[in-house]
Amino acid sequence: MGLRGRAALLAGVAHLSGWVRARGLERRRLRRLSRAKLRLARVVLELDVLELRFEAARAALADSPSGGASDDDAVAALESDWDRIRTDSLRLARREQELEHAWLGGPAPRGSSGQTVGETPDWSDLEQFDQETAELQRRADALAAASELRAGHAGSGSVLDRLALPLLQSVDEVLAQRSRLARAAGEGTGESLDRLRSARDELLALNQEAATIPARSGGDDGDSDGARLVAEHAELLERWEAVERRIVGACTALSGALKTHRREDHPGKKALRRDAEERVRRRVQASSAGASDSLDELRSTLGLQHGAAGGPMWSAERVLAALDHTELSAEHSTGGISEEGWQAVVATVGMILPVAAGLLTGWAAVERADVNTAFGRTLEATSLWRPWTSSATSAPSRSSRSPPTSDPPTRTP
């Protein structure tokens, strides 16, 4: 193949690889667009059911015997969430038509979403659409769960389970670090841990109480029973929020105790804040089996004050992050080795020591076997290395015999 043929082959390979890469990006874009469309379609199809739940919760709160500003605030929060979900659903539906028209050549959109789309949309447009549909789905799920809880429907205890599971996991992990906290911040952390354990036990009791509240309906006194259940759930949420404030207070005290023992190389508030937020996101994602990574929408709809930053779970995760950073900075400053480090050292020595002993034993055996016991003797190379040729070399062949040099014997008469 000549030079021109090789150049043409390389150009063809480069063109083919570029085409394959472009097709891969296009498939990724279509998969992401399809996923966002499925989320939006689910919310739009369930708008009627969501509206019924919202209206039932609003009516139940309006007929609640407790009344007061708390019920008015709950109704206002539900109405605000419902209006926002309905508005964003319409806007994102128009946005979907605009993206399909620009990318896939679909029909022109009937209305504008308020966002511009070029002939060749950027990847950021699709990412924004995907994120907005995911946020819309979380808000719709949160409104449905909050409406069930506010209206006193059956199974409303599962709503609090969604809040309690990741929070209890974070609190339990903090309580399990009593010895580490004592080493890092002193024995004064025991009182804060006791208050945290008491709040945890009360939170568990509230969660069980929510699961055992009967959801009654029908009969002659169905309306009064429904109103009573709404009042019970509202009162339970108030106690729930009070327990969360106690958890925040205990965790804040622990973080303050760790703050006084920081080294100079300890990360600042921003680093700890980001670390705690990332821990909260992973915790929620694990507890929900990947369905969601935030509970802010549900907490806001239920009227709970603290969101991702400053909430009870964030406070607990911040204690864990501060503890890890404090121990890490202490190791770097003192040059010491932690307990986990010593365990790794022991395991490494346990693996290396038998290998080293075996090598030394083998070298000693080879050294003993290599002693020359024939020192001082004259060894013939032929008989030593080629014993099978000794007879052949010692006796000359018949063809190589020289004729006799002496005269032949004479006969005597």
Structure summarized in a few sentences:
The chain is mostly helical. It is 73% helix and 0% strand. It has 2 domains: 12-113 and 126-151; 155-338, no CATH class.
Structure characterization notes:
With 413 residues, the protein is mainly α. The chain contains 14 helices and no strands. It folds into two domains: 128 residues; 184 residues, no CATH class. The longest helix has 43 residues. Helices cover 73% and strands 0% of the residues.
Count of separate DSSP helical elements: 14
Percent in strands: under 5%
N-end to C-end Cα span: 97 Å
User: Helix coverage percent of residues?
Assistant: over 70%
Which residues form runs of ≥5 with pLDDT under 50?
215-222, 331-335, 382-386, 388-395, 397-401
Q: Layout of SSEs?
A:
Blueprint lengths: L2 H43 L1 H16 L5 H36 L19 H29 L5 H19 L2 H8 L3 H24 L9 H38 L9 H19 L8 H7 L9 H23 L4 H31 L11 H5 L4 H5 L19
Give the tags:
about 425 residues; mainly alpha; 2 domains; about 75% helix
